[in-house]
């Protein structure tokens, strides 16, 4: 005999389970519907930006440092242009053959050749420039230009070096510039809302900052702000088209109260003996002359001095750095 109450109870349980299943799948459907809407509509801009970033690459543009003048507007420190021989590796099939052709009229050191061979494949893969030789002489420039038609993938480009026109006279007052570590460089770039990445250099020595003297005290003013170029890249990171350029803001010029002629007189009178001369303008308190002796060669330190020579200066009993 069938128990009617049991049958009703089973039907009710079945109905409850059925409602639960419908609710579960209904909520699951609504969840997937929400996620689809979120991905395709709400988060479209975020994913579009991320996708764009994967297809583009920023390359920094180094600014040129400001010029330093004396009180009469005469230049003390300038940016001296020099010329580098540069190669486009992605357009070269055989680098050894190319080097052999170049060395017929431009001398390349063993270090130059080793650097070229070591970096050629990576630069070619990423479509980056490769410096064959720095600081070309006018004779080397003339030799290359007369044969330029043979080297469509090679060109000469201008770079700068920091030059103090009166190297030893202003060694302590103006100071010198030098290379910079990655940690400090990151601080500079963060201050400009940028990050450390590949850079188009304007200076042969790469990143430089003021190390001593006015070059250091007014470094932020003198160094300017980096610009950047935005390139389209392929999946391998190879540069394709330039999409945008934000020019670098070159450093501001610095006009000092120093006087070149009085610096010369003081320097000559000290005649490399230990001592110092400071002359102050009474009315304004401005420093007109600031000379310490013995001095040291700023330009050699700035543009490349051997460790042995630098250590010799450091250990000199006359203490030229002080």
UniProtKB/TrEMBL annotation:
GO molecular function annotations of the record: beta-lactamase activity; carboxypeptidase activity; penicillin binding
Residue ranges of every copy of the Penicillin-binding protein dimerisation domain listed in the record: 61-243
Keyword Aminoacyl-tRNA synthetase attached: no
Official protein name in the record: beta-lactamase
Catalytic activity annotation: a beta-lactam + H2O = a substituted beta-amino acid
Family under the similarity heading: Belongs to the class-D beta-lactamase family.
Lineage summary: Bacteria, Pseudomonadati, Pseudomonadota, Gammaproteobacteria, SAR86 cluster
PANTHER family cross-referenced by the UniProt entry: BETA-LACTAMASE YBXI-RELATED (PTHR30627:SF6), PEPTIDOGLYCAN D,D-TRANSPEPTIDASE (PTHR30627)
EC number: 3.5.2.6
UniProt-listed GO biological process terms: cell wall organization; response to antibiotic
The protein's enzyme class: hydrolase
Listed transmembrane segments: 14-34
Classification via Pfam families: PBP_dimer
């Amino acid at each position: 005999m069938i128990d009617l109450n049991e049958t009703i109870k089973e039907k009710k349980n079945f109905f409850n389970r059925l409602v639960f299943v419908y609710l579960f799948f209904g909520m699951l459907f609504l969840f997937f519907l929400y996620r689809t809407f979120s991905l395709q509509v709400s988060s479209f801009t975020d994913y579009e930006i991320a996708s764009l970033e994967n297809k583009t690459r920023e390359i920094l543009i180094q600014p040129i440092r400001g010029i330093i003048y004396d009180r009469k507007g005469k230049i003390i420190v300038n940016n001296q242009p020099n010329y580098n021989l540069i190669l486009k590796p992605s357009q070269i099939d055989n680098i050894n053959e190319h080097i052999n052709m170049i060395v017929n009229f431009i001398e390349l050191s063993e270090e130059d050749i080793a650097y070229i061979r070591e970096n050629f494949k990576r630069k070619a893969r990423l479509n980056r420039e490769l410096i064959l030789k720095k600081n070309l002489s006018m004779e080397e420039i003339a030799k290359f230009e007369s044969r330029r038609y043979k080297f469509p993938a090679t060109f000469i480009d201008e770079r700068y070096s920091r030059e103090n026109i009166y190297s030893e006279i202003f060694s302590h007052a103006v100071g010198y510039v030098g290379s910079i570590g990655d940690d400090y460089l990151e601080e500079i770039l963060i201050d400009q809302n940028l990050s450390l990445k590949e850079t188009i250099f304007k200076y042969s020595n790469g990143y430089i900052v003021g190390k001593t003297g006015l070059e250091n005290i007014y470094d932020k003013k003198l160094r300017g702000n980096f610009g950047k170029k935005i390139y389209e890249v392929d999946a391998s990171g190879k540069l394709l088209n330039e999409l945008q350029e934000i020019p670098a803001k070159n450093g501001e010029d610095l006009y000092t109260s120093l006087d070149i002629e009085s610096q010369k007189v003081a320097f000559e009178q000290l005649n490399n003996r230990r001592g110092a001369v400071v002359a102050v303008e009474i009315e304004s308190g401005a420093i007109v002359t600031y000379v310490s002796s013995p001095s040291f060669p700023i330009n050699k330190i700035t543009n490349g001095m051997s460790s042995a020579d630098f250590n010799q200066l450091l250990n000199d009993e006359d203490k030229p750095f002080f």
